[in-house]
From TrEMBL:
Domain of life: Bacteria
Pfam families for this protein: HemX
Entry keyword annotation includes Manganese: no
Protein name from the UniProt record: Uroporphyrin-3 C-methyltransferase
Cross-referenced InterPro entries: HemX (IPR007470)
Coiled coil: 70-104
Native species: Usitatibacter palustris
Transmembrane segments: 20-39
Keywords, comma-separated and alphabetical: Coiled coil, Membrane, Transmembrane, Transmembrane helix
Length: 343
């Protein structure tokens, strides 16, 4: 039996100890679990880092490969652009060649009659220019005759109206007086060459006897030579000449030189007027040359007679004529070409 006087033991401390041990065990388990989970997480993290590093290395390699491929693609693109530009250039050149070939084909495909009419038109245009610009009647007539001969050989080509117009224009040109421009120009050139040798009415040179006397004096010496020179000079102070005109001019050597040069200029002006078909100026220059020749130069000398005859022929020669046109022939050939093009 229990003594009521003795204290009874308290059951709480034993319960508390068990609870503490239980809690401590739980804490240890929790700590162990935490350590395990921490270790596991660290291992997982290391595995993830290793995996990420490998992936990054792979990505770097792929990036390098991509850059290399991009550079190669850029080179290929540049080469492709260069080839495209070359192809475009070749295409443009091919197009130009095709156009040129088409034009050549069109030109070659034209009939012989069309080419003949075109050539005849060109001949007539050239003849018209010869007439209008130079007054070359002979050249224009030769061109018309050549065109008519070419049309005569085209038996299948119906060009009777055109040949009729050509015949009419040729008849009008044949009826014109012929101007010998070349012959007149040659005569003027011969006159210009003759001017320097024309003797003046009052000669500016010593007489032949005095020239011979001076030559003889040069062979002498001393006092006799001086005396002869003095005597010759004294005789030269007075000259007696028989003149046909009362207004003969006494010219110094310099004046005689300029007279001859002015006469040459007059003849050159007449030549220019001849080429320009300026008959008024040509006549004026020839008349002035005739007047100077009759007044200042010896008309009885051989050169004076030849120059006077040449100037007379020049004064009587026709220089300018009224040149007709050949518009009728030009209109006929153009009408024939237009009629063939309509077909």
């Amino acid at each position: 039996m229990n003594d009521p006087l003795l204290p009874t033991p308290d059951p709480a401390p034993a319960t508390t100890g068990r609870t503490t041990r239980l809690l401590a065990g739980l804490a240890l388990l929790a700590a162990a679990a935490a350590a395990f989970f921490a270790w596991d997480a660290r291992q997982a993290l290391r595995s993830l880092e290793a995996t990420a590093g490998g992936r990054l290395a792979e990505l770097g390699a792929e990036n390098a490969q991509a850059r290399t491929a991009l550079a190669q693609n850029q080179v290929v693109i540049k080469e492709s652009q260069a080839r495209i530009a070359e192809l475009e250039s070749r295409v443009a050149e091919t197009h130009e060649n095709r156009v040129a070939l088409e034009d050549m084909y069109k030109e070659l495909s034209r009939s012989a009659d069309d080419r003949l009419l075109s050539e005849v038109e060109q001949i007539l245009v050239a003849a018209s220019q010869q007439l209008q610009l130079q007054g070359n009647v002979r050249g224009a007539l030769a061109a018309l005759q050549a065109a008519d001969q070419r049309l005569a050989r085209a038996e299948k080509l119906a060009v009777a109206p055109l040949r009729r117009s050509l015949a009419q224009d040729m008849d009008r040109l044949k009826a014109l007086p012929q101007v010998d421009t070349v012959g007149i120009a040659v005569k003027i050139d011969n006159l210009i060459t003759l001017v320097d040798g024309l003797p003046l009415v009052i000669a500016d040179t010593l007489p032949p006897t005095r020239v011979a006397s001076r030559a003889k004096t040069l062979e002498e010496s001393g006092f006799s030579r001086a005396a002869r020179d003095f005597w010759e000079e004294m005789k030269g102070l007075v000259r007696i000449r028989e003149l046909e005109t009362s207004d003969a001019a006494l010219l110094t050597p310099s004046q005689a030189y300029f007279l001859r040069e002015n006469l040459k200029l007059r003849l050159l002006a007449a030549r220019i007027s001849l080429l320009a078909r300026d008959e008024v100026s040509f006549r004026d220059d020839v008349k002035a040359a005739q007047a100077w020749l009759a007044r200042y130069f010896d008309p009885k000398s051989k050169g004076g007679v030849a120059a006077a005859g040449a100037l007379k022929q020049l004064a009587e020669s026709p220089v300018s004529i009224s040149v007709p046109d050949i518009n009728a022939s030009l209109s006929a050939v153009r009408t024939a070409r237009a009629a063939r093009e309509k077909r």
